[in-house]
Amino acid sequence: MSASSFQVAARTIIAIGGGYLASSSAMAIFCLLLVSAGLARADAVTLGILLVFVLYLCLLIWSFAVSALWRPITVFSLLIVSDYGLAFFIGHGR
Predict the structure, then answer these.
(1) Mean of the per-residue pLDDT values for the chain?
(2) In degrees to the nearest 10, what's the CA dihedral of 20, 48, 82, 64?
(3) Rounded to whole angstroms, how far apart are CA atoms 74 and 41?
(4) Angle subtended at Cα 42 by Cα 38 and Cα 48, rounded to the nearest 5 degrees
(5) DSSP category for residue 15
(6) CA dihedral 79, 87, 45, 41 (to 10 degrees)
(7) What's the chain's Rg over C-alpha atoms?
(8) In the chain, what are the domain boundaries?
(9) Pick from 14, 12, 51, 6: which is nearest to 31 by CA?
(10) How confident is the model at residue 12 (pLDDT cuts 50, 70, 90)?
(11) How confident is the model over 30-43, as pLDDT tens digits?
C-alpha cells in the first residue's frame, strides 16, 4: 500500500466515522437546545436532523480538502468530546 493510497483510506475512514460521530453528537446538542428554546420535541428533532445533514456533508468535504491529516482527527475528537459532554450536563437534569 503506497503512501497516497494510505492517505486516501485514512481520510475516508476519518471522514465517514469521525464525521458521523461528530454530527451525531451535534444532533444531541441541537435537539436539547431547540427543545429548551421552546420548540416542540418533534419539530426540534426534525430541524436537528436537517441541520446535522448539512453539518455532516460539510465535515466530509472539509476532511478531504484540508492538507494535514491530523486536523480532521483533532477537530472531530474535540467536537465529539465537547458535544457529548455538554449533552450529558444539559440533559442530565431532565
Answers:
(1) 89
(2) 40
(3) 32
(4) 80
(5) I
(6) -160
(7) 15
(8) 3-89
(9) 51
(10) very high
(11) 888 899 899 999 99
